[in-house]
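[Meeting: bench + compute handoff]

Bench side (C.D.) handed over the final construct sequence. Compute side (W.E.) agreed to return the predicted structure before the next meeting so the bench team could plan truncations. Sequence as handed over:
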Amino acid sequence: MRVADSGRYVLFGVKGWGSALAEALLELCRAPYELVEVDGFDTPSAARDRLLAYNPLAQVPTLVLPDGVVMRESAAIALLLSELHPESGLAPPPGAAERPFFLRWLVWIVANVYPTFTFADYPERWVRSEREDFAQAVGGYRRKLWQQLEAELGEGPWALGERFSALDVYLGVMTHWRPRRAWFAQNCPRIHAIAESADAHSVLGPVLTRNFGED
């Protein structure tokens, strides 16, 4: 779907949700954008109606590019922005030693960890009974996934070692979600250290504070 050229990016988001990823990526690209805040997915509003025109699933993030092309899915947004704004350093360039690791774990996060929040937050979409047991089981599975990533991370302030990338945006944002930072500090110290580095980042840190406060 294409819309009239706005001259800048338009990001549809909900504070503290997955749109924080795209918001942080745009800030790191130093790209001009308009943030359209949607109060809720199930509550009728003018912002939600506007979002539905671009995304029939009413999901965030939904990003309208300056030329009017609509982008959905955070990993696709991350990869596209890394190409449109190579100076941002969001992704190692083709041929870089870190690129296979970056691509593998970026897709792994969005394909494996990210869906567990949808499953546990909206279990009624998948099951009609035993809601609490289902949510707890998904939460346990999510913690195991995080520990899998923890085991493969090396030393260094970022997921790729010395090189900052969009992976660190994901870890900075998603460690604010369940099981939250205290659990990561105890069980995944490398991921927790990366999250703390994200908090201290001059561009990424303010986005995290706006979305999640000081927790």
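W.E. noted at the follow-up: The chain is about 55% helix and 5% strand. C.D. will use this when planning the next construct.
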